[in-house]
Amino acid sequence: MVYCQVMNELVGLKEWDVQCGLLTRGETSLLIRKGGIHERHGEFEVEHRRFVLYPTYVHQNPEELRAEFAPLLRTDPAPGRVRPPALAEVVAVHRVTDLAAAQRLEPLQALTAQAMARKFAYKNRPWVHALVLRIWPLREPPTLTETAQMLGCVSWVPLGELKVDVGAPAVSDADLTARAAEVQRLLEG
Hints:
The chain is of the alpha+beta class. 20% of the residues lie in helices and 32% in strands.
């Protein structure tokens, strides 16, 4: 089955290219977020429930990726341009205020436990968000020219009106439900 989405005033969530690739391929459905230096309200908020993944290459660090994912790092193939690979929908949001609970999620996503600890402690605000995402890979990712509004250390960027064509979800509903349940189980300890 092929889906077609037309979305007005679409936004992008900036995330490391490696993470975007893993989500788009269905290798993971979990994203650990803290936010950028210049967030609109001073900290990351889940402002949008549906958005495209906006791959970034700045600040990617092989030491913060689990060993099996570090080789996936690459340099920006087209500086000044961005190709959102997928449409994402937030299925579950967990604000995790216990570091040990956050680190139990390590096997379900790409970051190391040490990277999660660094995010957790960032700005002396002890928490992270764990987002479970449904991902629809884009059949033909658009190529967008980065504008001044898209630059900087912020999570959410306006992309304007875009039409995106998506195929089947990267993960079946049953598998996504199981992944979300596993996140909940690990957080509960």
